[in-house]
Design a protein that fits this description.
Layout (H helix, E strand, L loop, with lengths): L6 E4 H7 L1 H10 L2 E5 L2 E6 L2 H29 L5 H11 L1
Helix pairs in contact: 3-4
């Protein structure tokens, strides 16, 4: 997987260039906005945002599944599915 380097610019420059510029650039790569040289925000395309949310949710479900398996291995009272359901309900 190739990581695309973000375009970095100050929020002042971004404001001068306008929202149209930011949205156009964000379709190609993330745009990192800075204030006084420090990162304050990142603008990404809707597709990138959705993909990142999907990846995060997949990772979360994998961690919960592993935790449920560990709980089930240590408990004779809960089946794997029941432990998983309890962990999902608690999270």
């Amino acid at each position: 997987m190739t990581t695309i380097q973000p375009l970095t610019m100050s929020s002042t420059v971004a404001a001068r260039r306008g929202v149209g510029f930011l949205t156009s650039e964000a379709q190609e790569r993330p745009v990192k906005l800075t204030s006084h040289g420090k990162p304050v925000a990142v603008v990404v395309s809707a597709a990138e945002y959705d993909e990142q949310r999907r990846l995060l949710r997949d990772a979360e479900l994998k961690v919960l599944s592993i935790a449920a398996d560990l709980v089930a291995d240590r408990s004779t009272m809960l089946a794997v599915d029941e432990a998983r359901e309890r962990l999902l309900a608690a999270g």
